[in-house]
Amino acid sequence: MIKYANPKPPEGINSGGYRPGREFFVLGATLAVIVGVVLAMVFRFGEWVAPHVPFAWEKRLEGPFVEKFQNDKPVSPGIQARLQALVDNLGAEMDLADDVVLTVRFVDDDMVNALATVGGNIFVYRGLLERLQTQDALAMVLAHEIAHVKHRDVLAALGSGVLVSIASTFVLGDGGGVSDLLGHEMLFAMLHFSRAKERRADLDAMSAVVKVFGHCGGAVDLFEVFKAVERETGTVRNTELFTSHPLTPNRLMALRTLAKAQGWPMDGPRRPLQTGMKAH
Q1: Are 209 and 218 in contact (CB under 8 A)?
Q2: Per-residue buried b or exposed e for 149-168, using 16+ beta carbons within 10 Å of the residue's own CB
Q3: pLDDT tier at 179, thresholds 50, 70, 90
Q4: For the chain, is the Cβ count within 10 Å smaller at the N or the C terminus?
Q5: What pTM did the predictor assign?
Q6: pLDDT bucket at 68, cuts 50 / 70 / 90
Q7: Which residues share a beta bridge with 114?
Q8: In this structure, are residues 110 and 191 in contact, taking their beta carbons and an 8 Å threshold?
Q9: What residues contact 200, with CB distance under 8 A and at least 6 apart?
Q10: Please, are residues 247 and 195 in contact by the beta-carbon 8 Å criterion?
């Protein structure tokens, strides 16, 4: 007698080793690594090129950036002249290249800020001047921005941003990246430099301030103002992670360490801001 049976097939007999989810993850991770490496190389290339670009070439690029940050409110020639005189005085102590030209621009705005853009342009906001009490503190701010110009940090950041945007356009197909770079918020983001560059600018600035004023009191005054602003605005941070600037207490500690090593006095007579510096 013939017996028929219908045995259950072994599990997995019709399945191979292909795992689409795993393959997709591996492919995505590989692509992310490649894109990251390419963009990092492009960024580093921009950092390397910037110091070798003649300043006259950089100066030709300043127009759009000046228009972005300079508002239409009238500015007192007296404020502009006093700021420029202080910038020129500090710049003379900072070993700038012979072709570098510094131009300071007052901005009638509440923002507590100062920044440097391409072409040696330094913007100082009314909101910052209203918080400062001494020329010493103002000099520390200005010398810090001059240091960014000196080391071509501005051109490096903007140039790298443009190159990274172009590279991302080719790799990711983001056609709007380059045109978005001239947006006001994007420019502010790009002008936040690495913590290492900020520390270098702080050190250069304090060296210049000591040469002009004879002590480091301006740096102390400035960072006390920054700490007060951070408390008022609720922006006090406890970690440097995800920040472009070192923490304010850490910046002040680093400068105290430098002053001690150099034998620079941390205190001395302050010079009040000149009459009319805070208003137009």
Answers
A1: yes
A2: bbbbbbbbbbbbbbbbbebb
A3: very low
A4: N
A5: 0.76
A6: confident
A7: 124
A8: no
A9: 147, 151
A10: no
